[in-house]
Each structure stands twice: as C-alpha cells, then as structure tokens.
Amino acid sequence: MRDCYDTCSMISEFKNGRLTVKGNPEHPVTVGFLCPKGALLPKWFHSKDRLKKPLIRKGERGSGQFREASWEEAIKLVASKLKETIEEHGSESVLVYQYAGDRGVVNYAFPLRLFHYLNTAMLDYGICDRAGQEALKDIYGTAVGMDPEEFKNQRLLVYWGINAFWTNLHGFMLAKKSDLEIWTVDVVRTETAKRSDRFFQVKPDTDVLFALGVAKVLIEENLYDRAFVRENVYGFEEFKNYVKTLSLDYVSRETGLSVEEIEEFAQGYAEKKGIIHIGYGFQRSLAGGEAVRAIAILPALVGHRFGFIYDMKTIDKSYAEGAFLRSRPAKRIPQMKLAEYIERGEIKFLYVYNSNPLASLPNQNRLRKALIESDVFVVTHDIFLTDTALYSDVVLPANTFFERLDIADSYYHRYVALNEPVARLYGKSNSEVTRLLAKALGIENPYLYESDEEIIRKILQINGLSWDELKENGFVRVPEKPRKWETPSGKIEFYSQRAVERGLSPFPEYRKFKGKYPLRLLTPTYRMTITSQYHNTYGMIDPNLYINPADAKERGIQDGDTVEVFSDYGSIKTVAKLSDDVPRDIVLLYKAFWVSLLGWNANFLTTDETVDGYGKGSAYHSTWVEVKKASSLHEG
After folding, report:
1. Is 24 helix (H, G, I), strand (E, B) or coil?
2. Which of 79, 442, 523, 632 is the one with CA 20 to 30 A from 69?
3. SS3 629
4. Could you tell me if 239 and 300 are in contact, meaning their C-beta atoms sit under 8 angstroms apart?
5. What is the pLDDT of residues 479-514, one digit of tens each?
6. Secondary structure element (H or E) that encloses residue 107, with its range
7. Which residues make Cβ contacts (< 8 Å) with residue 480, sequence separation at least 6?
8. Statement: the pTM of the whole predicted model exceeds 0.70
9. What angle do CA 46, 384, 433 make, to 5 degrees?
10. Residues contacting 278, CB < 8 A, separation 6+
C-alpha cells in the first residue's frame, strides 16, 4: 500500500501485540517475497515516533513547538479556519496538497470529495511522471504499456533510465524468471546496470539522440517491421526523412557511445523484438519529454502494439474522489509551483496529506521562506512529525494501511489487492478525518459520509469486479479490454499531431542544456527509502556525494573529504565518495531525506523549473552545481 511500483501482495499477522509480514506466494507478479523496505514494515508500524495525539503550533513556524490537543479541539480549529478562509478570501484560496504516500484508493482519494464540494483549488500533479505521460500520449494516446505477465512471451527487456533492482525488484526478478535478456541504458552504472547482459552508458539529455540514432539504423538497414509500420504508423515517411539527416558520428560524439554500440543495439533489439521499460527519473529533466517521445517510437518499429512499460491504469477510481460534487471547474495549481503561489498570496489555507512536500519538492529554501513569511494556515495529516508537519499550524495523527480497510491498484501490473486491517494502534484514516471535518462544517451531503466499504463496493461494481472474489483471494486480476491508439489519427504517431498542437516539433528534438555551474546533479531515490518515507524509522540512508575520481582530482578532493555543494538555489555540506560508476561532469546525491534529521537534503539544491511543453513536469535533474573542498561538517 505504499507508493511502490511493484504494489506487492503481503500477508500480515498481529499476534501478542506484534506485527509480522511476509510476501504472498500466490500472487503471480510479486510471488512470495518482500523487498528490504517491505520486510522492515513492522519496525515502521511499531515506531515509538508515531503521532498519537493532535498537535497545535505554539511557537514559530518550523520550530517544532506544539501543544497536544484533543481530536475535538483540533477538528473544530481546522473547520473554523477553513470556513473563515473561504469567507474572507474565497474557496480558491484553499489548496489540498496530496500525493501517493499511500496507494489505498479510498485513503488517497476520499478527502478530495470534501475539497471538491467546497470548490477549492486542486493540484495539477507534475512531480513524478508527468513529462513521460504526455510524451507517450503523443505517440500512442496512452501511457499504459505492456502487462509484465507478457514477459513469458518476450526475449529482451531494456531498462531505460530505471534502476529496477532497487525500485522494481519484483519486476526485475520476474524478467529473470522469464529468462529475458536484460539491457540497461543509463547515465550512471547502477546496480541494475551491473546485473544486466549489456550496459549502454549515455550522457545526460542525450537519450533522445541515442533513440533517434537507433531508429535511423533500424530503418536504413531494413530491420524494422515493414508490414506493422505500414498498417499502424502515422507519419513514417516523414520520420524516415527526419532521421536520414542524422549522422551516426554526431550521435556517437554526443551520447558517448561508439557507432558500433549504436548499431549493435539496433540490430540486437530488432532481432529479439525488444520491449522497453521506460524509467521515471530521466524524464524529470528539461529534455525528458523529448527523450521519452523518441524512445517510445522504437517498440513500434519492431512491431509491438504497446511494447513499452511505463504506467498501468487498470480501474476507474474517480468515484472515490467525487469531482461530481463541484459546482464549478477547479482552479489547478501546478505541484512544482507551490512556493510561487504562496508568495503571491493565492494560497491562504493548505491541507496536506499523503505527502511530505518540505522534503520532496525542489528549491526548499524558497518554499520554507514562503511558508515562514506568509499567513497561510497549514494543516498536515500524517503518521509522523515530518518536515512538513513541523511547519504546520495543526498536525493530525494518521493511521497506517495495517489499520484500515481499502483496496489498492498498481501502476506496474494488472492486480487489485484487498487491504484488510489487522490491528489498530494510533491515529485516524484520511476518510475518518474527512467525515469529522464535514460534520464540523455542518455539511449534510451523504457522499461525504459514505463508509469505506460502500465506496470500495461501488468502485468494484463500476469496474465489473467481484467483491466476493476479492474477499476470498485477497487480490483480483483486472482483465485487459481490447485496446486502440487514442491519437488523432487512430494510429501510432511518429509524426505527433498532439505535440504540434502544443507548439512542439512533430518529431522528438535534441537540445543541449547548460547551467551556470559545470557539474550536473542527479538525485535518484535511495534503495531503503521511497522518496522521504522510512528515513526516520529504518535509519538507512546514504547522504554522501558521489563524484568521478577525475572530477574530484581537479578540485583537490579525496575520498572521505568534507565538501560543499552549491547551486543557484542553495548549498549543503556532505562527504565525498569517489566512484567510477558516476561519469565525468556528473555528481549524485540521493533525494529527499528528512531535513529535521540530517540538517539538509538534495532539494536544497534542485531547480523548481518545469518542463512546460510536457504538462509542467518536474525538472529536478536539470540542476547544475559546483563542488569544493570544505571545512568539517560541523563548522561554518
């Protein structure tokens, strides 16, 4: 139920006051084992740091000074402030900020019903996979790709920009079990790259060029599926002429790959009719949308209808959210622009759940300054006193997915899981708090008081799924309906009409990006965290800066030295680790650790620019920094 790609099926027991967990051996995709994060969930569940009572701020924002309050007092305060804000500033001055800290359908969506009913502003999500979503829609009309259970009928899987051994372990093991040849394309020699049959190491932002170079070879050496392309592709001849002008020598110089490697990729990919698992990381950059658009063309060239893996949307969950309760269209605030809207005074009341934006959003200095200097009233509903909770006026204790009824779908596979409560320790669910707030506001609309089970049953009914089957088995497979390409032409569009409508080129374009500083900062997720989750409970983090030995030598930096890293947005101090896994001109910091525990995180350096042509997606990885040797971590 956490925001995990795999959404594994887990069997939980609560005996003698202790929780135990194990993987469900019956699940066809997650097959009976848990990743290291999942195996440690009892430690998270039983953490002594879990919030037990509501808190009301009594000191300066961010100081951590709170007093305990009763649920009645806290809910009354939140409701009165919410009502006052709407009366004085209008409903659009209220923003509900949530994301996928929990995968439970009811827990994720039900609170939105209240804010829809109140006609408040809503988030326009851009933090995670937005640019890639838009790019895939340009080509296929959807970002939903292949069912991973189809691995058994494939020969080659290319991991492009994803460290699957850390972030999609069940998928990686499924590929191994299916005897797939595994290739990896990435900037860094990740654990996945080290376990792959082939590794193609590209320079940042050149994924688009590598994909176009591969497409050129496929077409000019007649390695593509001519019958499939003729029947199913729109704009092939124009695309063929487009890549004809591309020099493989130029592609080689820019990507860092040899012409032979480009040709070998194309030849092996065509022979084995490969599928591509497109990662989320590299599309969080200014070049990300164009890169995904180029990569997405390759599966179609070898004859796949939907030969990529990116997202999986199996069920319609909109009933849980209840946008039908609105009486006027929602004002949408781009997720990456939260600080800007607070600065402009457009947000006066902020309700946060399922997210920790004061760890996960970029340009943290700007966001924290905006919160301190504004009069925005902040409410956070969470399991722990997160960095966001520390900057809140009211903090409400949440419970965990072990303590409530819900269902969860996956954005990797086609199974919906039943989540049944096994114990009840502390806090209230998101739906419980929503009902309390609705009652305190004097709202009588019955949709705000539906039980979790009623909502779940309704969603299952809408999707033609059986509650009884789900109860009996614990999970149910959502059948795949006949699929078509929802593009303007009804075909796979190499010449993208949708992109042209947004003012983009009809074909993916390569652009060079440079910053003020010489080193490109990459901030991927760490193996033992999901963004900021588990830092406080597992305590397993890696705060070191990884730098290539040659770059370190130029700066007089040795392994283990304290260094200062600075960008246009801030600076941090940490310890340098020299690694040949990181190429020249690149440095790597793992993302979103708790600032309240570490004193900083990578997002004090990251850019809050957005990929405007691709849905205002995030551009974290288009951050440039410089590194210099510094005094000890505890000085200055």
Report:
1. coil
2. 442
3. strand
4. no
5. 999 999 999 999 999 999 999 999 999 999 999 999
6. helix 105-117
7. 147, 414
8. yes
9. 100
10. 132, 136, 145, 160, 161, 162, 292, 295, 296, 308, 309, 310
In what helix (H) or strand (E) does residue 288 lie, and over which residues does it extend? helix 288-301
Beta strands in 328-459 (DSSP E): 332-334, 349-353, 377-382, 394-397, 406-408, 415-419
Question: Which residue matches tokens 């092996």?
Answer: 268
Give residue-wise pLDDT tens across range 378-425. 999 999 999 999 999 999 999 999 999 999 999 999 999 999 999 999
Tokens of 129: 């996979």
Token pair for residue 10?
A: 């887990």
β-pair type (519-522, 586-588): parallel
Query: Tokens standing for 614?
Result: 């691709």
Torsion of CA 154, 160, 164, 170, to 10 degrees: -20
* Percentage of the residues of the chain whose pLDDT score is greater than 90: 96
Give the DSSP per-residue string, 360-393: HSS-HHHHHHHHHHS--EEEEEESS--HHHHT-S
Helix (H) or strand (E) holding 201: strand 198-201
24 CB-near residues (< 8 Å, 6+ apart)? 8, 9, 10, 11, 30, 32, 474, 475
Query: What whole-number distance in Å separates Cα of residue 479 and Cα of residue 473?
Result: 16
Judge contact between 199 and 183, C-beta under 8 A: yes
d(CA 491, CA 590): 40
DSSP structural state of residue 21:
E
> Do 417 and 456 form a contact (C-beta atoms < 8 A)?
no
Report DSSP state, residue 524.
P
Q: Which two tokens stand for residue 166?
A: 């850390």
Which DSSP category does 217 fall into?
H
Tens of pLDDT, residues 178-187: 999 999 999 9
3-state helix vs strand vs coil in the chain, percent to 5: 35, 20, 45
